[in-house]
Amino acid sequence: QVQLVESGGGLVQPGGSLRLSCAASGIIFSINVMGWYRQAPGKQRELVATITTGGNSDYADSVKGRFTISRENAKNTVYLQMNSLKPEDAAVYYCSYTRGSGYARYWGQGTQVTVSS
Q1: Has residue 44 got a pLDDT over 90?
Q2: Counting runs of H as helices and runs of E as strands, what totals does the chain give?
Q3: pLDDT of res. 93
Q4: pLDDT for the residue 109
C-alpha cells in the first residue's frame, strides 16, 4: 500500500503562483511514476503532469510552459510549481503514484486550488 499526502493548495489571484507538494510513504518501488491530476466541478479528472524516477516528464498541453513538475527520489516527494495561473486552472489537484503501466494507481486526498481575483 502507498499513502500520499498533498499540501500547498490555496487561493491565488490570476497570474499568481503556487507550489504543490506530495509525499509518498509505504511500499515504494525504486522505479515508479508520480504525477498530478486535477478535477474541476462537473468535469472529469484530467492529467496535469507526470514524472518518472528517471526524471522524464509529461505535461498536458494546457499547462505547458506554465507548470513544472519535479521530484526528490530520496524523499519520495513530487512537486508541482504552477506559474501564471488562470481561473481555468482552479480545481482539486490530486497526487498519484504508480509502478507503471498495468499496476495499481494510488491517489492522495486532493488539495484545492482556487484562482480568483
Answers
A1: yes
A2: 0, 11
A3: 98
A4: 96
Residue spans of beta strands (DSSP E) within 27-110: 33-39, 46-52, 57-59, 67-72, 77-82, 91-98, 105-107
What would the pLDDT profile of 54-89 be if each residue is shown by its tens digit?
Answer: 999 999 999 999 999 999 999 999 999 999 999 999
Q: How many CB atoms lie within 10 A of CB 17?
A: 11
Is 79:9 a contact under the CB 8 Å cutoff? no
As a whole number of angstroms, the distance between CA 22 and CA 2 comes to 12
Residue 47 three-state SS: strand
The CA distance from 97 to 8, in Å, is: 18
Residue 70 C-alpha cell reads as 519535479
- The CA distance from 114 to 100, in Å, is 30
